[in-house]
Structure formats: C-alpha cells, structure tokens
Amino acid sequence: MPDLITQSRAAQNSALAQLAVSGPAYLASLISAAGDAIRRATGRDFALGSYTEYHNGGIYIREPLRLRQFPVVQITRVAASPRGALLVQNIDAVTNQRATVETTSSGLRLVRVASAVATTLDLLYTDHPTIASTASAINAIGSGWSATIRDGFDRWPTADLRPLQGAMSVLNDWRDLEIYTESIGQLAGLPFMPNGSDEASSAIGWRLDDETGELYGRLPRGWLNIRIDYRAGFATIPQAVQEACVQLAADLYQAGLVNNSLKKATLGASSVELKDSTSTPQLSAKVRLLLAPYVDYARVIFR
Prior knowledge:
Elements: H1 7-10, H2 14-22, H3 24-42, E1 49-57, E2 61-66, E3 72-90, E4 98-103, E5 107-114, E6 117-124, H4 131-139, E7 145-149, E8 168-169, E9 175-183, E10 205-209, E11 214-218, E12 222-232, H5 239-256, E13 264-267, E14 270-273, H6 285-291, H7 297-302
Antiparallel strand pairs: 1-12, 2-11, 3-7, 3-9, 3-12, 4-5, 4-8, 5-6, 10-11, 13-14
Helix pairs in contact: 2-3, 3-5, 5-6
C-alpha cells in the first residue's frame, strides 16, 4: 500500500524537515506507520487502487450493498454464479503424506509433503493465462499431481479463479477451483425500482452511487455469490488527510524523544512531571478533526 504523503510533503513540518536531513530512513518509517494508523482509524485506503470483493446476493437489494472503498472510479465487473472450473488432486498417497492446492491473487500454489519434506510449486497466471494451460502444467509436474477441466472452461482466464480460498487438501480427493461465470450489467434504461413483487420482476442488474460506494439493484440470491471488481480511491490524496499524516508522523517522532520510564525530574528549584503514559494511546484532537469527514464509520464501529 503506497504512503499517504511523500517525504517532501512531510518536510513542510519544521521538526520533520530536520529529520529528513538527519534521518531520512527513520522519517520514511514514521510516514508509513502514520499512514497505516490513519487507514485503520478511518477504515479506508485513500490511494487509487484495484479491488475485488465478494458479497451475498439477494433477489432485490432494498438496502445498498456497500463497497469497502470509495469514491468508486470504475466498476470493471459484477459477476455471479460461482462454478467449479478446474479439478485438482494428488493421487500418490504412497509417496506423499499431505498435498494441498491454494489459489492466490497471482497464481496457484501446489504443496506436497513427502517424508517430512515439503515441496512448493507456484504456477503464475502470467505464465499460464488460461485454464487449459494451467491444467497442462499441473499434469506435467508428476509426483501424483493431476488436473481435469470442467466442460466449457478451457479458454477461461486463470486470473478469474477466486483467490484466497485457503489451502485445500487434495490427497486422493478432488477439489474444485471456482470461477464466477455470469456477468451482470447496469440497469440502464430500466426503472430504478422494479414494479411488482420481487419474484415477479425479471430485471437483474445494478446502479451505483460512486461517491459513497453504495450499489443498488437486483442480484441473484446466495451467499458470497457476487464478485465485484472495481477501482476506487483518490488520484491525489486530499490535503486534509495529507496534513493529518504529517501531524501524526510529527506526534510519533516527538513521542519517540520522550523517556517513558521517567515520571518526574527535578533540576534545582524546577521540576517537571510527565503525563501518565499508561492510558490507551489516542490520535490527537487536530488529527481527529482533519480525518473526521473521511471516516467510514460503518467499518470502524462494526468491524
């Protein structure tokens, strides 16, 4: 995830400007830490990026389906009806004691364990762009690996396989790798709210409030049966968020200069007593003020 500010933007703060000269690597770490804290506090990523999410479908969405990032720049695909596209197994239970397959965002990972030795093989989607080429690569490995293509999926892109399914055991047991097969379009030229009962209307589709990331429409009923690919975020991070990152990085830097083990010090007739640091750390009032308009309270409160 890219940083919310550059070092030159941070150096507009006098304290951080000195650090940019004396310790640029430390300043870079503070900027990254401040950005991570802001993303956590607001529930948003801010920087423009590509996302894939999975949601439950319903015959009619009366409440909007909320995408996790906004503003939405582009929805590249809304798809439903996940189906098994590629069957994978390892049939050598004599040599192997364990075998798993896992889909990631960049490829397939095959792992087998034989006599306590794990062998991992990554098949990248860029090297094997279609289901057919991936199946051929698996069948060519040997060591018990076997793949079978479901009817009609030979030319489908492997990048469409659902990622993050976890490692599934395939030792003498087939596992299906899924693809969302039915593309759903916008409700262009149709009434926003279908007439009649939910079951009576056949209009399937969606409409989007791009500023809030709220998607309305009619989608097939199911659990995690809707895949949405989209781009969201700001091409230029809002100045208020940038300033909050600067202030938080400065706060972190100043906090690092304090001896937290020291509670009270006396020098001649003067003494100083440090603030109790045992309470839960909080963002400063100025940082919270700057971030307030950008907080996704639905994610912050209910996560």
